[in-house]
Give the backbone structure.
Amino acid sequence: MNDRNDSSTARTNLDRRGFVAGGLSLLGGAGLLSSRAFAALGAQEEQADRTLVLIQLSGGNDGLSTVVPFGDDAYQSKRSRTLAPSEGLHKLDGYRALHPNLGKLARHFEEGGLAIVEGVGYPGPVRSHFKSLDVWHSASLSGRAAREGWVGKVCNTAWKESPLPELVVHLGGKVPYSLHSLEHSAVAFEIPESYRWLGDGHEAETLRKGSEGGERNSVLDRLRGVLRDAQESSTRIRAAARAYRTDVEYPDTPFGRGLRVIAGLIEARGGTRVFSIELGGFDTHNNQKAAHDTLMSTIDDALNAFLRDLRGREAGDRTMVMMFSEFGRRVAENGSGGTDHGKAGPMFLAGTPVEGGIFGEHPSMTELDGGDLAFTTDFRSVYATAIEDWFGVPHAEVLGETFKRIPYLKT
């Protein structure tokens, strides 16, 4: 069988209901929210617009074990120990299916709330995690030479004059370069309930010595003000995390808890436009099947809970999920029951605003690029659609050139 371009789309009309009012302030790294900026949140609440949630699958997700080309004989011949069992697949058409552990996301696909973009990559791909992520994060083949991440450039273009430091929020210890901006620092934290601002070593030591000596100068006054605002912000963050209530049960995993926090912060209407979270463990060189099966369940349970939680809310109508990995895996298995670094792989868009279906072209399983799937869709086309059709910014102003947009959003 070779019906690689078959697709299934559907739409779901959902009722709306109002936001739950809440106040929220975030800070992290250099991003600090003053009391005056926090007071301005209420006035800007009604102007808060669309939200993008970025999910990074770190390590290189095996796309062939996620969106499985079960109808391709070449796939069957290249895989044995990592082969997805045909009896458990969630078939999308006569050629491809979702992994057996993605049953909940398969229902979202059937309902029209999940889009799959196939064969995503970029020209001249590299198999290094760091270099490939630099390309994805900067949306430039030159990587960090572009000086800012693509989300940072969106902030500088779309919300240049915004005083809110929490325009971009990352749940995790290390902020991805995609969020780097010379003008809008991203906020980062891991667990809101235990969130505290500690400052960097130099600031904390200066504040300690100045406090002990009773000194007063402009630097110490600034640091005292920062600490005061940070303490107030910590209280508000913990309060917002504790106050969030939902009937949806999230899985008790770090990823599940993280998505629950994001849902609560979206509902709190703090003005954040981009959330970011990471799920690791995809560098499956050895004994891939068991690890990848578990990761698929982790995604399915947590992302399904998140989408269900937002469904029917105004917040859900204004939230889109984008899930990606830095590259796919090689077509042929290695000798350790795993797969090595590859090139092209699928991207996923999810949520009420998404026009579900399959976009792009599944790469040939026989006409390979050095043993890898050759990319058929430039990842910047996916970004371009989010930048222009979701955030309303001409994508060439952010990406530096024009890309063909993909109609994965409802009109």
